[in-house]
Amino acid sequence: MFGKVLRRIDWLTILIYLALVFIGWINIYSSTFSDEQTSLLDLSTRSGKQLFFIIVSLVTIIVVLALEANFYERFASLFYLLTMVSLLGLFVFGKTIAGATSWYDLGFFNFQPSELAKVSTALALAKYLSDIQTDLRRVKDQLYALLIILIPALLIIPQPDPGSALVFFSLVFVIFREGLPLYYLGIGFTLILIFIITLMFGTIWLTIGLSLLIVLFFLLKRKTLKVPIIPIIIGSIVVILFSLSVNFVFNNLFEQRHRNRFSLWLRLEKDPEKLEEIRKTIGYNTYQSEKAIESGGLSGKGFLEGTRTKGDFVPEQDTDYIFTTIGEEWGFVGTATVIILFSILFLRLIYLAERQKNGFSRMYGYGVISVLLVHYFINIGMVIGILPTIGIPLPFFSYGGSGLLFFTLLLFIFLKLDTNRLKENF
């Protein structure tokens, strides 16, 4: 039975997974290396602990592949419910690390239920969307699907862990893939754009720009084209009202550290000297990571030869900022290799998802893609300075037992579902 699974499984995806995990572990070892370190298997070091969790993840893969594929669909709702309970339990029994109460202390292992929640939410969403009674043309069903995503996000934000909460909203793309009208996506991107424009230029300039666009539209439109005026007026009023609320939200609901990161990202400070000072204080992590990657050049300084890595210039270099170690020690060649591996992985997963005959398998596959892609895009974006610092790990790379274990679980459940595709054809 298990031999048939091994013959059917997608080995290209597994090889990419193993390559990413190995490269990640090598760079964790490098970023935490010290002269006192004597053994790769020393569990008192971060590289030793990560190696232990790599072994645990490999055992988890065997368990995942050994279970029947329909097990995951049958118990998806139960997994989701238990995970939500574990998130609620953090408010009573949680352990606080770096200001966030996101972990359970299990002794040697700190368990982070938000990582498991990504798996269970992707399963629950796929289960609901694949139900024969679900019709995304109905507003009620659209709201239920969004609620599945919203509940874990709302439980994670107060920890506080807005970065992890943001990842859950990536699962909205699964709903769009299955038929949610695209105008919802347009509304979402429009609100984000208005938020950013208001912060950068203010409501007055946004109103002037909006007015000019409307005038230009009416001047250039064809005379035969009839455009209803009232919806345009109502839409403009909504945009302006939303813009007026932005400063209140930004100044009263955002924490100071979040405002500082947006100020740095959007260059809200106009004085070049003050902006540079912000980069070296508030944006210290990003500033140092940019310098470390820049110093790597084409081929890097060599394994264990990164001066900024050895000097601990970049905080959290084995977790959220691990990509800087690759940039400094392996240069453009190393970073390009990692990006290519991730790109091939995403393209392969899209191919696997599209070939599924079972709706649950396809939808879960797109859930896996959404979660991994958002992690990858945000992590590398913040490390190279094009996105604000949020604090989420690079999949299969960053140090962390919970992260590696549940990213592995997320991926290999889908690979198990894919092996069942051949049975469904008969």
UniProtKB/TrEMBL annotation:
NCBIfam families: RodA_shape. Pfam families: FTSW_RODA_SPOVE. One of its GO terms (molecular function) is lipid-linked peptidoglycan transporter activity. GO terms for cellular component: cell division site; plasma membrane. It is a multi-pass membrane protein. This is Rod shape-determining protein RodA. GO terms for biological process: cell division; regulation of cell shape. The chain crosses the membrane at residues 12-30, 50-67, 79-104, 142-158, 191-220, 227-250, 330-351, 363-390, 396-415. It is found in: Membrane. PANTHER family: CELL CYCLE PROTEIN, PEPTIDOGLYCAN GLYCOSYLTRANSFERASE MRDB. Keywords: Cell shape, Membrane, Transmembrane, Transmembrane helix. The keyword Chloroplast does not apply.
